[in-house]
Amino acid sequence: MSHYAIGDLQGCLAPLQRLLDRLKFDATSDQLWFAGDLVNRGPDSLRVLRYIRGLGAQAVCVLGNHDLHLLARACGGRPGRRDTLDELLAAPDRQELLDWLRHRPLLHEHEGWLLLHAGLPPQWSVGQARRAARQVEELLQGPDHARFLSSMYGDEPNLWRPGLRGRQRSRFIVNAFTRLRYCDADGRMDLRHKGAPGSQPDGLMPWFAVPGRASRKAEILFGHWSTLGQVHWPEHRVWGLDTGAVWGGRLTALCLETRQLTQVDCPEYRRPGEGGEAD
Fold first, then answer.
1. pTM
2. CA nearest 121: which of 173, 198, 60, 57?
3. What is the three-state SS of 101-136?
4. Is it the case that residue 278 has pLDDT exceeding 60?
């Protein structure tokens, strides 16, 4: 049995099929770990969700910001300027797919590996991250999930305090797990800057590079950051698996047993004058 961790799909089914062919994926024994953002921007969000849901226990998925945006849209939230979710929202099996997605975790742990979409604040230990994830998962899976989804947007608070309560606490947790790239040495999150390390303003650093980060002993797999510039940062024990498939880059898989990377090119999504970074 092999475990393969795969970067952001964002509605790109054809590259996933090519990648699984290259991996010789065996749906009876292997397991796929998806780092979130299954949907949006690409053309096949509906078919991506149907395929991954159909894998049952052979697929593990954590929630990304685009997945949460889809859930918010389904509850009456405003569409984004570049959304490609209309087909999914109009599908006859929409509700089954949305209910399945709403019950995915923010954090998955297995034999020393952590899978999440964006990042962890440097103040959080693995135990604190686990507890924070479960708090928001309970809200998403509960009867008032629509109310929660309508209140999760916003960039504040940007600094973790154990005394955070209610909406402020849940918003911080969502932003950390699904939007974080940079923060300062004190752990204040900056959610605006999306470029590669070296392009950020003075005083900011990648979340995983903050000295003394409490989760530094764990091996962490994440997506969300297609401009990161490299996949493995061994000195920080992190793997950034979003390599920009939806922007015409590559789709990346890491075999956890061998630590071997497999990638496929995604030229079908490259358009003249387009490209960039997901929200």
1. 0.96
2. 173
3. HHCCCCCEEECCEEECCCCCCCCCCHHHHHHHHHHH
4. no
